[in-house]
Amino acid sequence: MEKAIEHKDKAFTSTRNACKVCTPLGGSIVFKGIEGCVPLIHGSQGCATYIRRYLISHYKEPVDIASTNFTEETAIFGGEKNLFIALKNVTKQYNPKIIGIATTCLSEVIGDDMRKILHKYKLDNKEDETLPELVFVNTPSFMGTHVNGFHDAVWALVNAFATSGTTTQNINIFPGFLSPADLQHLKQIFTDIGLKTIMTPDYSDILDNEYTGEYEKLPKGGTTIEELQQTANSKASIEFGYVLNKSNSKSQTAAEYLESTFDVPRINLNIPIGIKATDAFFETLESISKKETPEKYRKQRGKLIDAYVDGHKYVFGKKAVVYGEEDFVIAMISFLEEIGIETVLCASGGSSGLLKKVIQEKVNPKHTININDNFDFEEIAETCKELKPDIIIGNSKGYYIARELGIPLARVGFPIHDRLGGSRIKHIGYEGTQALFDLIANTLIQQMQDNSPVGYKYM
Ligand code: SF4
Predict the structure, then answer these.
(1) Where's the Nitrogenase/oxidoreductase component domain (predicted)?
(2) Shortest-distance atom of ligand 1 to CA 139
(3) Phi–psi pair at 116, nearest 5 degrees
(4) Domain that includes residue 441, residue range
(5) What is the DSSP letter of 226?
């Protein structure tokens, strides 16, 4: 049994190589998943450039993100003037249906009153027929991670548009921060089971787009304003993840808002990675639809179990270090438990204070896991040296640790900056779990093969 490592008081008060990304980045991804929406970063040019660069490198798609372009003068007198200019420019250049505004550290420190500023802009421009919808989210990066920005932006959109009306048979799905491939898979599952859904956000095509030879200022796809309005009238909301935006105790999720304001029942599930979590998801769909899981998915489940049997001798008893967003690592650990991999370190840059509690309650691991939130990559590296895992599972930012220690890295989640196909990694459902299982098993097999003194080509 692995012993929990006692961590002394941190020698560093600063973060060294953060295992998280900046808050408006999460908000920007959500705004990219809304039809006709342009994200606008309210802050300095560098914030928008960093977010744009980061997203393009992972998704390999054009990611237009506007900026209010703060200068020294703005930092002293506030960002109202710049925001007004940016809104005019973005409206003229893109003719968007929505501009999604995410604040930055600087505008938050200045204390720009976004509600008041946008109210003034709308009043000043009420005769302008091209005036788009304006939605903003407060995303101070010193108070959270990209995950907070993501969930808070979803809340802001639902809060801005959800309108009470006649109840429908729609199911709201709030998948959280998954890959475009995961969103495409989710949509297919709902279609196959015959359920109409409203997915917020839906960047399944926008951030994994087809080549048309034409540059599209506003790529097709995304959740529509009409769908956002209708979220108030759906039969239920399904929300993946347990930590969500709860690092701020005052935060509410979109599904919680719809339940408390419009009586739309909220169903909260683990991200469906692994058989147990995917079974729970399909059981929920069966109970909502009153239909059995389609044969296609029963077959996928059976094949996955077959793969578990085939591969257990390569994965069972291996030790893993897992890092990433809090809800993502919770789901990954649940999957690793069922294939017999011991997670020796679970780390996240998130600091909700909930990670340990949720893992103990929802995953109930059979062995001791060192669970550390508010962890950075340097701390992960130091702990890896002590724990000597067989595999590291997480995004590409941990590559330097894997390289230095000679431990293989299975790349999952976000960001993947040193490989192609980050947007095509499927993590969820039986199909996504199958892909993860093969990836992890083959990564371990390759390491054994590379370290073999004789080399072999048959196993
Ligand atoms: S200043 Fe704040 S908002 Fe801007 S990139 Fe840095 S962390 Fe993100």
Answers:
(1) 22-444
(2) 3
(3) -70, -45
(4) 277-283+293-451
(5) H
* Domain shared by 77 and 208, yes or no: yes
Q: What share of the chain is helix, strand, coil (3-state, %, to 5)?
A: 50, 15, 40
Which ligand 1 atom minimizes the distance to the CA of 105?
A: 2
For 298-326, write each residue's pLDDT tens digit. 999 999 999 999 999 999 999 999 999 99
Tell me the chain's radius of gyration from C-alpha atoms: 22
Question: Is 133 a member of any domain?
Answer: yes
**Do 106 and 223 belong together in one domain?**
yes
- Over the stretch 25-34, which tens digit does the pLDDT of each residue have? 999 999 999 9
CB 245 within 8 A of CB 155: yes
Share of the chain above pLDDT 90, in %: 93
Q: Which residue's alpha carbon is nearest to atom 2 within ligand 1?
A: 105
| CB of 43 closer than 6 angstroms to any ligand 1 atom | yes
* Residue of the CA atom closest to atom 1 of ligand 1: 105
Q: What is the pLDDT of residues 362-406, one digit of tens each?
A: 999 988 899 999 999 999 999 999 999 999 999 999 999 999 999
- Give the Å distance between the CA of 35 and the centre of ligand 1: 26
Long-range contact pairs involving 435-438 (C-beta distance under 8 Å, separation at least 24): 436/273, 436/335, 436/410, 436/412, 437/304, 437/307, 437/308, 437/311, 437/315, 437/339, 438/307, 438/311
Q: Which domain CATH number covers 240?
A: 3.40.50.1980
